[in-house]
Design a protein that fits this description.
Blueprint: E1 3-10, H1 17-27, E2 34-38, E3 41-47, H2 51-61, E4 67-73, H3 77-91, E5 95-100, E6 105-108, H4 110-116, H5 121-124, H6 136-144, E7 151-158, E8 161-171, E9 177-186, H7 190-193, H8 207-220, E10 226-229, H9 236-246, E11 254-258, H10 264-272, H11 290-293, E12 298-302, H12 309-321, E13 323-324, E14 333-334, E15 338-343, H13 347-352, H14 358-364, E16 367-370, H15 381-395, E17 402-403, H16 405-413, H17 419-433, E18 438-439, H18 462-479, H19 484-491, H20 495-504, H21 509-512
Parallel strand pairs: 10-15, 10-16, 11-12, 12-15, 17-18
Antiparallel strand pairs: 1-3, 1-4, 2-3, 5-6, 5-9, 7-8, 8-9, 13-14
Helix pairs in contact: 8-9, 12-14, 15-17, 19-20
Length: 513
């Protein structure tokens, strides 16, 4: 049924004026879909009616004492309020639900629906909350209908994540109860961030990656800040966790936070914490930031290049003074943490364009680990393919023997703008969709729209392509070594093997001396 929304205004507040107006509609058999009444204002949602009939209705309403005007509007007042509330709740970076008095979901914001419960808001509508939060405490709370009580700061687990649950009654100014407001805040759990990842979990045998790993191992035993650079998908957090677990702080927390994924105001409170009463919506008792939570451990700040200038200044003070001041606080709290940062940005370019502080770079860049992109270590692709294929085949319950040569050739020829993360996703998709025991070339789906092709002009065999990359690596190491023996040590091969490879690939002295 098509409808129209009408706003009727009156000039006086007298008894029965609403009744008189509705009597006109009733006289012409006009049904009312929705109505909202205030002093001097009446909102109506009615079916669309013929224009001549509407003129007659207006004529009769004008004869009513106190009637002033009737105009068509887009939304009635309470509809505007609902849209405003939903818009605000969907912006909030935490899970929020409105429940009716029986504990059924009236509204769930996008965060709780998509990020926490992995569904959509419309599918949650009218569903009992206990279908999703299977907590005896919540079940008991809803069933006993303790209308004026609350659940405050109750830890629950949903999936693999821990959340802080709060449920509060919704009451009007006359203390009439209509339901509950439920919120879920993600908890930074120290135990979740203490991990068993080591350098053995970093896959690769190329000279480039082994050199970076050995360098990172040396840095792990020092206690100074480390900056990890590399393109997106190269494994920066993997290196950070491996460094932590090789360090003297390995029995303490490893806490990671992505500076690009959190709004500035929320990031500030997550980093530095806040005192009680610092801002609306904060915990009554205040909150520790990750520098306090990570005491004696490691704090990993991913995507540091995205940090806002005012937070860079505050972080610099923390690193200089080895203490943190919470938002709204005056006390300097001493901290003892090891800082590891990472970025996929050109940090030097950010400094030149005044987007990153040079003095902060000096503080975080005592040691630097630069992870090479996958396109510069393509000899590792077969090893990575074998590793990911085996893992994903187990997940999908398939007996995958490997890739056909042309499929491998396609992977090696590709430029990998998304690096190892992209390779892993490509292989998972191929394994999930294949009905074969060997992945074929047409099952490898690559995004050529964002990569610069490195396909060879001729149709080289797989062995020729791998050989070309091996030759490039050997030549590069020779150029940076004083002798073949030194190059052999860097490549972790015997002197004789390297000489044979030099002969095999016709590498002349003029090319590297």
């Amino acid at each position: 049924m098509k409808t129209r929304r009408i706003k009727i205004t009156t000039s006086i507040d007298r008894p029965h004026i609403t009744y008189d107006i509705l009597t006109v509609l009733h006289r012409h058999n006009i049904g009312i879909v929705m109505m909202e009444v205030y002093t001097y204002v009446i909102y109506l949602k009615i079916p669309i009616i013929e224009q001549n009939l509407w003129k007659q209705i207006l004529k009769e309403m004008n004869e009513i004492e106190g009637f002033e005007n009737a105009e068509e509007i887009d939304l009635i007042a309470f509809e505007e309020r609902i849209i405003d509330i939903k818009t605000v709740l969907d912006i909030v970076p935490q899970g929020v639900m409105v429940l009716n008095a029986k504990g059924n979901i009236k509204y769930a914001n996008n965060y709780v629906a998509e990020k926490i419960l992995k569904t959509t808001s419309d599918k949650l509508s009218n569903m009992p909350i206990i279908n999703y939060i299977k907590s005896d405490k919540v079940k008991q709370f809803i069933r006993t209908a303790e209308k004026l009580k609350s659940i405050r700061n109750y830890e629950i687990s949903l999936g693999n994540q821990v959340y802080m649950l709060n449920i509060h009654p919704i009451l009007n100014e006359e203390n009439a109860f209509s339901g509950y407001m439920l919120s879920l805040n993600e908890v930074i759990n120290q135990d979740n961030y203490h991990n068993l990842i080591t350098f053995d979990d970093i896959i690769g045998e190329s000279y480039k990656i082994r050199e970076v790993i050995e360098q990172a191992k040396q840095f792990a035993f020092a206690d100074s800040p480390i900056l990890i650079t590399g393109e997106s998908g190269t494994g920066k957090e993997l290196f950070a966790r491996a460094i932590h677990n090789l360090s003297n702080r390995n029995s303490k927390p490893f806490i990671a936070i992505n500076c690009a994924a959190i709004p500035d105001q929320l990031l500030e409170s997550e980093l530095f914490g806040y005192e009680s009463g610092s801002f609306t919506g904060g915990k009554k008792e205040g909150k520790k930031g990750i520098f306090e939570l990570g005491e004696y451990g490691t704090v990993f700040l991913d995507e540091i290049g995205e940090m806002a200038p005012h937070l860079q200044a505050k972080l610099l003070r923390v690193l200089q003074g080895k203490s943190v001041r919470r938002i709204g606080g005056h006390e300097e709290i001493p901290i003892d943490v090891r800082i590891i940062t990472a970025t996929n940005k050109n940090i030097d370019k950010l400094i030149k364009t005044d987007k990153f502080r040079l003095d902060l770079l000096y503080r975080i860049n005592t040691f630097r680990v630069d992870i090479p992109p996958l396109r510069k270590r393509k000899e590792d692709i077969p090893i990575l393919v074998e590793y990911f294929t085996e893992n994903h085949a187990k997940r999908y319950g398939k007996n995958i023997k490997g890739l056909e040569p042309k499929a491998m050739e396609k992977l090696i020829s590709y430029n990998w703008p998304g690096n190892i993360r992209e390779l892993q996703n490509v292989l998972e998709r191929a394994i999930a969709l294949t009905a074969n025991k060997t992945i074929k070339e047409n099952e490898i789906m690559l995004n050529y729209s964002i990569e610069i092709s490195e396909l060879p002009a001729d149709k080289s065999s797989l062995s020729d392509m791998v050989g070309n990359y091996e030759r490039k690596i050997i030549l590069e190491v020779l150029k940076n070594s004083s002798s073949i023996r030194e190059a052999a040590r860097k490549l972790d091969v015997t002197h004789t093997l390297l000489i044979n490879r030099i002969k095999k690939y016709n590498i002349s002295n003029d090319e590297w001396k």
